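Q: Structure tokens for this one, please.
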Amino acid sequence: MSARIRSIQATNTDAFIENLDKIPIPSSHQQIFISRYPQTSLIDRLDITEITCYWMTLSDGMGTIDPSLEKLNHLIMTTTSDGQGTIFMEGIEWLTSLHGFDAVHSMIRSLSEKVSMSDWYIYFAISGESFSQRDRSRLYREAPLLDLDALQENIKPVGLKDDFVNKPAQQSSVEIDLNDDGTPKLVLLTKLPRSGFTKQILQRRILQWRRMGLDTSDIESSLYSKDEEKMYIKYAEIEENIRRATELERYVISAVGDTQERTIALFRIRQLTGLDELEKIYFSD
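A: Here is the predicted structure, written as tokens:
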């Protein structure tokens, strides 16, 4: 049994990813996510600028891997042969349906022995309801279930106040009101302070903006930057533009009666383009 290989109770991919935020991972570690879903389906859930994703599929392409146990085992063994990092893997139940429990269990046991001699960690998503009590016990013998609640009690981000630590999770689940035409309303979110600002927090904010229908392509490129100061400056610029866009949208919806004019104006507002021109049209005396 290796302390470097663990199971995380999760009924689906979203639940697994939500739990990853509770695990402290050194910034120097490589991160790999092996999933049943392609990167395009994970971009709203994971920071794929920091995590290398592999899609288990029979289709050939960049970032894909055949779901055969031999190839998965080879990938993980090769990856963990040097360096430091963390591998997250979901889809164990699916692999079991393809290859049988004994074969999957044998692979996990082999990985447990290998990883115990490396500087890598592996976390498997396990849905307890998908296995019998006997099989579940065999899995947990090789990859013990991680107690995330106990882990959180012993971990607290340094230098952040409790109210700020809790804020991202609360904001990420904020409900979006709708306009009469069914489009999401623009709302001003709590401004992120420079203290404690990180790439992960910015990514959550970008996702909130995207859910409002805003074009965030201008700031998404900053997620590839290693300079948090420049990242925050760019965030502040976009935050100000969104404040202006929110005021413009409220005016256009309440005061512009021409359907075509309103449609064009709202489109430009969501694109965050031409705000200067729109303000001259609607806000100049």
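A few notes: Residues 155-174 have pLDDT under 50 and may be disordered. Residues 162-283 form one domain.
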